[in-house]
Amino acid sequence: MQQFICTLVISIIFSSQYFAQWNKVEQITSPFIYSVLFDNNDIYVGGDSLYISRDKGQTWEASIVTNQPIEITALFKYEGKLFAGTYGSGVFISSNNGMSWQSFNLGLMDFAYYAKKFVLSGDTVFYATDGGGVYYLLNNTNEWHEYNQNLPSQIAWTINDIAVTNKNLIVSAGASGYYYLRPKGSPEWIEKRIQTPGGIYTTPNAFLSTGDIVFSGSRFGIYKSIDEGNSFDSVGISAMDISVVCFVKNNNRIYAGYTRASGNDFFVWYSDDFGINWNILDHQFLFLRNLYINDNKIWAATNDGLWYNELETTSSDPIVKPINFNLEQNYPNPFNPSTSIRYAINSYQFVSIKVFDLLGREVKTLVDEYKSAGIYEAKFDASNLSSGVYFYRLKTDTNIEIKKMIYLK
Hints:
The chain has 409 residues and is mostly beta strands. It has three helices and 38 strands. The strands form ten sheets. Strands 1-28-27-26-25 form a five-stranded mixed β-sheet, with no helix packed on it. The protein has a four-stranded antiparallel β-sheet with strand order 2-31-30-29, with no helix packed on it.
């Protein structure tokens, strides 16, 4: 148990080893970079205009989306069409890789002309706005539809970020201390909260979805969900007075961009173990907006232009240790009312984790699906159960292991 606890202790390691120097793309004259899209050899950069490179960033040209000055705040590509979301003029679309554009605002109302982000779920494009909530576009149609059913208009239509998991759509909105989750096919949003270790409710600034695991960043550090955004737990850097503004994932490495409370220093940190340990990469920006990975580089959209940093092989491809079958002791133990169970499997196989009482009666199924080789966590909430001793069993195609845990109200 002591060994397991040690593996879960969040250690923030200030590393003295920095990677190569950040380089600024001087050919892009807009100081404010809001969005970037990478598409094979093409790079699209949204600032006070649209900038395009057709040769992976060697040369650049400005592209006119409209005849008026315009801020490109969101970029997206789907089914061969480029989407450019603007701040105040809505959405524009191009079918020829940015050579010409046309307005694409049918169905949008009020503040939906202020673009924040596009995401794809199945064959549906979701469009998050800064004041108009969320809209969606079905494949091969040309009209947006509102997706704001029961989303509070006064506090939740200003979207901070939007993310898609296997089963859910998640949005963070405003600064009210809430986020909103909508299972796919559900008629309405579910109001959720993230509570800090100090008992404060915090509003997410940014999400990173990796399937069933979702990371959330707020002004009180980083939080991780192992149940597709239904609940979040603190996973590091929360001891510092920071605000996380963005995430990006590269293979097994997760990067987090954040600033101190003062808002003057912007840093980039990374984790190679899904948030258990964090290491500092670098800081060099006046204002960091977003991070991207492309062509073995990490790119930074800032208020001082577009920057990039060459990644070392070890940074983009962390050494993956051999994974063995393993079931850890739950933590915390004893617990009240929830606890986490960490386990590992060494190949793609069916995984079942079930909880039983002292009489051998099944009380909860935590996992019941096929999973790839890897290290996972399952969360057990015993709020509706009585205090006592319980057993949890990990069963795969080739192994079975059982451990005991204690629930104390």
